[in-house]
Amino acid sequence: MQSKYKYQWYQQIYENIPKIVAEATKEAAKLGLDKLRSEIGLYSGSSACPGSLPYYVLDAIVEANKQRIFPLRKIEDELREVIKDVYGDEYDAAVANTAEAGLRACLEILVAPPTMRKGDAYRGRLITPYGEDYEYFGAYGRPFPPKYKNINVDRSVSAGELGVEGKSLNNLDSVYVRYVGARYEVHGIRQNPVSLLTRVDAAKTAERIRMVAERHVESLTGFSIIGYDTPGWGNGQKDRDGVPKLMKLIGQTTEDFDVPFLVDCASCLPIIGVTPQEINADIMLWSMDKPGRAPTSGLIVGKEEAMVPVRKGLGYGGQRYGEVSSHGKALFSLSDPGRDAIVGLTAFLKILRDDPDKVKRPIDKLHEIIVEEFKTLQPSRFRDKLLITKSYSMGGSEMNYAKTWDDGGFGIPIFNLEDLYANTNPISLAQEAMGVAPSTIYSGNMFLTPGLGTLDENAELNEEYARIGIKALVRSVEIVCKYAGLTD
To answer: Taking the mean position of all CA atoms in its chain, how far away is CA 188?
Structure first.
């Protein structure tokens, strides 16, 4: 018997987790996972579990280590050249040890107000859309309006009212703006709001953001957005060139207000994805050990004017005696990426520049497998509600299932990011029980990329392993639906 209300239904699912895990464990042998247990995964988008480095990255690192003297400035200037080859001479680059470190540096350097002045320091306000992963930017500021003051507490950042990490900047506010056309619903075992963004109206959302900017103009210091270009992240509307309309409109708005526009591309890829020129971004950041094939590192690319203070803050701004670049200890010396990370990152960026198809091929093949395997999903009534989007920008495919709720009844259970951290997402637990490192699933989105045991040493897709992994995901969804009372 199905529950009457959502909260009762999610409690029912929670109580059935032991049965879900037990059934998934039995399914592993049927799928052939008994021979591949813990050797394959479906999402390489976490720095906690990065994919293996391909030969062309490892070889570059080994070669650099053979040299007795290897000034980091040499390879950093080489990386800058690659970026300028791709984006033009008016753009520049820098590397931090993680994307989060680069994000902190950019926010503190370009958005947070100055503090070394007499009297009280003024506060600044950063405008950011209220979608998912809002805490990446938003947790650095005090949430505004106050109804959002508890918004970050259960997230990965612990930067809300109960924060202990000290991540928040003491003179910055984060102004959250709701997407027009989005649904904000409470889902999951942890019972938190999720942002369902597949029906976002780009023009109306941009208009709302401009209205909020005008309201806060006296303290406005910047705009930010998450850089995923997929429907599940509010970017289903694109122009004829495939550029997200909302990002373009925000870029135009920021220029009118003369404040920086920062885009956190997190688990995405540069060069073959959305570019700063297309959306008028001042700064874009990528975590390069995720869909990328680089060592743990954060890539910062931006307009030269914005990058000058960023590079100085990171110690790249040149020697005092006149050199145009350097590798020194500056304000953010704790963000130093080190030699091997920069060498490996540069090697990967060269592949993106010179042979992008090498990176695109596995994405293409994996997407075909995802589409094929989800055609078998039970309950069958959900199949035509799935929105599967390939994105070179995010380095894989997004499988969004929020529309399974469109007919008024319960759809495929939606879990939130807090469920991910609390280990209360049974779809993920079922995959783990089968011996598969699970896809990242929250807010009705599944993120699927090649990289964890599904690529060979040349970074080509092992289609057999990838297909088994996707079959395990489909079966995990079916098992959870079964114990949620969802049948044909």
So the answer is: 21
Q: Are 196 and 402 in contact (CB under 8 A)?
A: yes
* Structure tokens belonging to residue 255: 């220029």
- Cβ within 8 Å of residue 215, ≥6 positions away: none
Q: Please name each of the domains of the chain with its CATH number.
A: 6-52+357-483 (3.90.1150), 55-354 (3.40.640.10)
pLDDT in tens, the chain (488 residues): 578 999 999 999 999 999 999 999 999 989 888 777 778 999 987 888 888 999 999 999 999 999 999 999 999 999 999 999 999 999 999 999 999 999 999 999 999 998 776 667 789 999 999 998 888 888 889 899 999 988 877 776 554 444 445 677 889 999 999 999 999 999 999 999 999 999 999 999 999 999 999 999 999 999 999 999 999 999 999 999 999 999 999 999 999 999 999 999 989 999 999 999 999 999 999 999 999 999 999 999 999 999 999 999 999 988 877 889 999 888 888 899 999 999 999 999 999 999 999 999 999 999 999 999 999 999 999 999 999 999 999 999 999 999 999 988 999 999 999 999 889 999 999 999 999 999 999 999 999 999 899 999 999 999 999 999 999 999 999 999 999 999 88
| Per-residue DSSP letter, 324 | S
Ramachandran angles phi, psi of 364, nearest 5°: -60, -50
CB atoms near residue 363 (< 10 Å): 22
Whether the Cβ atoms of residue 463 and residue 472 lie closer than 8 Å to each other? no
pTM: 0.95
Q: What is the largest CA-CA distance in the chain?
A: 77
Helix (H, G, I), strand (E, B) or coil at 235: coil
DSSP 8-state secondary structure symbol assigned to residue 310? H
Which uninterrupted H or E stretch holds 437?
strand 436-437
CA gap 230, 237 in Å, rounded: 9
Which amino acid would we find at residue 112?
A: A
The C-alpha atoms of residue 89 and residue 474 are separated, in whole angstroms, by 46
Q: Are strands 298-303 and 183-187 parallel, antiparallel or unpaired?
A: unpaired
Closest residue by Cα to residue 306 from 59, 111, 46: 111
- The helix (H) or strand (E) run that includes residue 63 is helix 55-66
**Tokens, residue 446:** 């599944």
Cα–Cα distance for residue pair 288/348, rounded to 1 Å: 9
Distance CA 263, CA 110 (A): 13
CA–CA dist 366, 241 (Å, integer): 23
